[in-house]
Specification:
CATH topology of the largest domain: Alpha-Beta Plaits
Helix content: 40-55%
Distance between the termini: 37 Å
CATH architecture of the largest domain: 2-Layer Sandwich
Strand content: 5-15%
Number of strands: 4
Largest sheet: 4 strands, antiparallel
Radius of gyration: 21 Å
Order of helices and strands: EHEEHEHHHHHHHHHH
Number of domains: 2
CATH superfamily of the largest domain: Transposase IS200-like
Length: 261
């Protein structure tokens, strides 16, 4: 079965993730992390790409990468160069990374802001540190302290998405952002995750529990999460049949609006 073609970003900006095969750690020590950053530096110098955000976790890496020509060439250099180093050092053979790198197009400044929080808060979610800027192996500290020791890191993106430092700090420490990259968007939400989304969108939960909720809100949550009618009904406290009826009516309206006259 042929691979699906990657979605091309009109902005040339991508959220990239590289993950160790079978969840294997790709960084065994800090020397490995330093080496990976050197690989990024060389790639930026030799290819037509720039990197604005990064976070090196034990078994995966997140990047915000811009490449208008061929992102595949840039990622091939990163993956192959580091894999060669890693396999030689640890006397192993075979693939280091799981399948192909994962990518999603980034088409708006608001998406970049979300990724600024999501990527930099990976170590916080993993329980490694309590504040994102304290993590040694991400770009967060560079933006937080406004000191860029890496000439290859494109920090100019800061001026595109934030009007001032205060706005950046509000985004950086915003733990209310609910986000899943496109490559896991079809994964099932837990009831707790879905409940958090409901509360972030609709503060007066008593109305939800009392079933006094308007159709627009049901449609909004359904489109935003892609959750099943059954789960939406369970978390909202509304009959699954009601959820299904409202969503199907909305789908019929959309179908009619797209039909040629």
């Amino acid at each position: 079965m042929p691979r699906k073609s990657r979605k091309i970003s009109s902005t040339g900006i991508y959220h990239i993730m590289l993950k160790g095969i079978d969840n294997r750690n790709i960084f065994m020590d800090d020397y490995d992390r330093v080496k990976f950053l050197e690989v990024l530096k060389v790639t930026v110098k030799k290819e037509s790409c720039s990197i604005a955000l990064y976070c090196l976790m034990n078994n995966h890496v997140h990047l915000l990468l811009e490449d208008h020509d061929n992102v595949g060439v840039s990622m091939k250099r990163i993956g192959e160069t580091y894999s060669k180093y890693h396999n030689k050092k640890y006397q192993r053979v075979g693939h280091l990374f799981q399948n192909r790198y994962r990518s999603e197009p980034v088409e708006s400044e608001s998406h970049i802001q979300v990724l600024f929080t999501y990527i930099h808060n990976n170590p916080v979610k993993a329980g490694l540190i309590d504040e994102p800027y304290k993590y040694e192996w991400s770009s967060c500290k560079i933006y937080y302290y406004n000191v860029n020791q890496y000439t290859w890191l494109n920090t100019s993106i800061y001026n595109k998405i934030f009007s001032n430092r205060e706005e950046m700090l509000l985004v950086m420490f915003n733990n209310k952002i609910i986000y899943k990259p496109s490559w896991i968007i079809n994964n099932r939400w837990t009831d707790d995750e879905l409940n958090r989304i409901l509360r972030s969108e609709y503060n007066d939960m008593s109305n939800i529990n009392n079933r006094k909720i308007n159709n627009d809100f049901i449609i909004n949550i359904w489109k935003k999460t892609g959750a099943s009618y059954k789960q939406l009904g369970r978390v909202m406290g509304i009959s699954k049949c009601v959820i299904e009826r409202v969503c199907k009516e909305e789908r019929m309206k959309e179908d009619k609006s797209t039909c040629p006259h």
